[in-house]
User: Which sequence fits this backbone?
């Protein structure tokens, strides 16, 4: 953040606007903490507060998003929870399927951890998650995993969606892992401690920097802040945004608005009219005109209906 402020200084910009998504929200909050006078407006979308212990919260929030999916599709797929438990109970099992990217048939063993890691990525995007009921049903009742692994591959096939794992571990092992023992997040019934265990193993030997104690503090907002959360987000759901919004609003509630889009996933800025709302917030001539924003157009966005596979007629 000190490097970032050096860029601002070199550009000769007295103040600028911060827009951060996912981990970028943590970066924005840290810049806001260190350089409050240099910030005009702030947008944080999918809030990852500095005090969240990511490996622990992953299980809690991933489970909540999965349960929300089951509830949302209970009418069209009344047996979905049963299918899910049947699938988990059938593992481990050997499978053969075509790699979604190469088309080459691969043979491997599917275990519980692999299925849980395959289910989580589509939950980030409701449009992809809408196909999970059909994919889970096919895997549980027919032993067909093409849909499940196809969905998780689609999510991670774009270069922009891939994590730089070395940097990722350097950050999480420095900022989050040391606070896992203090976390009050209860493990999810299905996800359990798979992430906490994995990060504990990695972070035991991974090189990392020291984090100052003040990094975990969120002081009151010195200028308007628009907080955005997706109600179906499996990583940074509204409970984190609410906590941050409350801390930022101390003494100046008019400076903070928390916008929750109930059926959005990880990232709200690109959903429907949210882009127009963000523009109006940044473009407002005065702080008084910046907030609150009318967000009704975004909050009414529905969850995509469950995907129904097309059944073709058999040819003779």
Assistant:
């Amino acid at each position: 953040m000190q490097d970032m402020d050096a860029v601002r200084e070199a550009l000769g910009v007295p103040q600028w606007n911060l827009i951060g998504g996912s981990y970028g929200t943590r970066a924005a909050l840290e810049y806001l903490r260190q350089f409050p006078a240099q910030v005009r407006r702030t947008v944080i979308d999918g809030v990852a507060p500095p005090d969240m212990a990511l490996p622990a919260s992953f299980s809690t929030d991933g489970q909540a998003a999965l349960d929300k999916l089951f509830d949302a599709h209970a009418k069209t797929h009344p047996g979905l929870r049963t299918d899910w438990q049947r699938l988990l109970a059938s593992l481990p099992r050997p499978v053969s399927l075509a790699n979604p990217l190469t088309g080459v048939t691969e043979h491997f063993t599917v275990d519980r951890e692999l299925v849980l890691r395959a289910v989580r990525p589509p939950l980030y995007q409701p449009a992809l998650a809408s196909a999970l009921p059909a994919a889970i049903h096919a895997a549980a009742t027919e032993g067909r995993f093409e849909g499940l692994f196809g969905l998780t591959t689609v999510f991670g096939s774009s270069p922009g969606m891939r994590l730089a794992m070395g940097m990722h571990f350097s950050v999480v092992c420095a900022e989050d892992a040391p606070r896992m023992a203090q976390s009050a997040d209860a493990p999810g019934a299905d996800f359990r401690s798979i992430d906490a265990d994995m990060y504990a193993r990695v972070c035991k030997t991974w090189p990392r920097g020291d984090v100052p104690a003040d990094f975990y503090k969120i002081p009151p907002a010195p200028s308007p802040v628009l907080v955005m959360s997706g109600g179906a987000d499996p990583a940074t759901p509204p409970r984190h945004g609410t906590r941050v919004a409350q801390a930022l609003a101390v003494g100046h509630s008019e400076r903070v608005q928390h916008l929750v889009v109930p059926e959005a996933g990880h990232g709200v800025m690109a959903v429907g009219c949210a882009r127009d709302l963000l523009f109006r917030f940044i473009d407002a001539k005065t702080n008084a005109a910046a907030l609150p924003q009318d967000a009704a157009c975004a909050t009414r966005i529905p969850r995509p209906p469950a995907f129904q596979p097309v059944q073709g007629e058999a040819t003779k």
Notes: The first helix runs from residue 2 to 11.
